[in-house]
Amino acid sequence: MTSMKLFYSPFQDFIHKTIVVAEEVGVWEQIEEVPVYPRKEGYSIAALNPLAKVPTLALMDGTVLFCSQTVVEYLDSISTNGVRVYPAPGQARWDALTRLGLADTFFDIVTRIIHERLLAKPGEHIVEWHWPKIIRTLDRMEQDAARLEGFDIGQIATLQALTFFERQVTLTLPPPAPETFDWREGRPALALWFELAIQRPSVANHFNKPFTGDDSPDLCQAKVAEVLRAQGRETGNPVAPPDFVAPEGAAESGALKH
Ligand SMILES: N[C@@H](CCC(=O)N[C@@H](CS)C(=O)NCC(=O)O)C(=O)O
């Protein structure tokens, strides 16, 4: 029986660390997936999370956890099978958390770049500013991949970051990003680590397997209302407009990919 609602955008062409962690620690069966598309009309989780961002996790008693790092640490803490993806305090933990921070910040940089393309007048220098960070981060991931053992939260975040980046770079970024780019080139350890990691059942069960459930706005808002009821709050009408709708002529294809 499910006991938690995971509000997230069910694009399975990138690896979601919340799903991988839930699978690894044996709690996936307890999770009800609630699709949300934060920039589409009719979907709003702002009543639960002031940032209106996915992922957001709601527990049976109405507790709402947001920001992916909080969600995954919570899931790890309720492991049912003895597996923990957060190592105990000590060198292994700080190493894993450093790689988690690196990968999640890389993810945020990619998000920042693609958000820029939704603006009528994109800032000229965003890609120029961030591209060196992307290259240096990929190079650091290559160094890390050569020495990694086991499977921890840093590696799970790296899978998410790389696959999110890969689906976005196909959308043609402005210079100094090159016209085509393959992060695997010149990074053999990272490429090999990636090929092995995506074979884990926790990843393979979802990666590139299209979501086939109900992803309607009605379902999303009904689930938001359930959480509000569990909190003892008036349900009212929780449907707020999206925080941002791309202006006419902006690269909306990018918006739909995100
Ligand atoms: N640092 C956040 C990033 C989450 C994030 O950026 N979510 C995006 C989707 S990829 C979102 O919900 N955007 C909607 C918005 O900002 O309005 C985390 O790790 O949870």
Compose a concise summary of this entry.
The protein is of the alpha+beta class. It has helices spanning 17-24, 68-77, 91-116, 126-145, 153-169, 188-197, 201-204, 217-230, 252-257; strands at residues 4-8, 31-35, 56-59, 64-66. It has a four-stranded mixed beta sheet with strand order 2-1-3-4, with helices on both faces.
Q: Which overall shape is indicated by the principal axes computed on the Cα atoms? A: globular
Low-pLDDT ranges: 252-258
SS class: alpha+beta
Q: Secondary-structure element sequence?
A: EHEEEHHHHHHHH
The amount of helix comes to 40-55%
Q: Spatial order of the strands in the main sheet?
A: 2-1-3-4
* CATH class call of the largest domain: Alpha Beta
Q: Which small-molecule species are bound to the chains here? A: glutathione
In percent, how much strand structure appears in the residues? 5-15%
Number-wise, the strands total 4
Mean pLDDT: 92
N-to-C CA distance: 30 Å
Q: What CATH architecture label of the largest domain applies?
A: 3-Layer(aba) Sandwich
Q: Classify the fold: give the CATH topology of the largest domain.
A: Glutaredoxin
Count the domains.
Answer: 2
Radius of gyration: 19 Å
Can you summarize the main beta sheet?
Answer: 4 strands, mixed
The H-level CATH homologous superfamily of the largest domain, spelled out, is Glutaredoxin
Report the total helices.
9
Describe the protein's topology.
Layout: E1 4-8, H1 17-24, E2 31-35, E3 56-59, E4 64-66, H2 68-77, H3 91-116, H4 126-145, H5 153-169, H6 188-197, H7 201-204, H8 217-230, H9 252-257
Parallel strand pairs: 1-2
Antiparallel strand pairs: 1-3, 3-4
Helix pairs in contact: 1-2, 3-4, 3-5, 4-6
The protein binds glutathione.
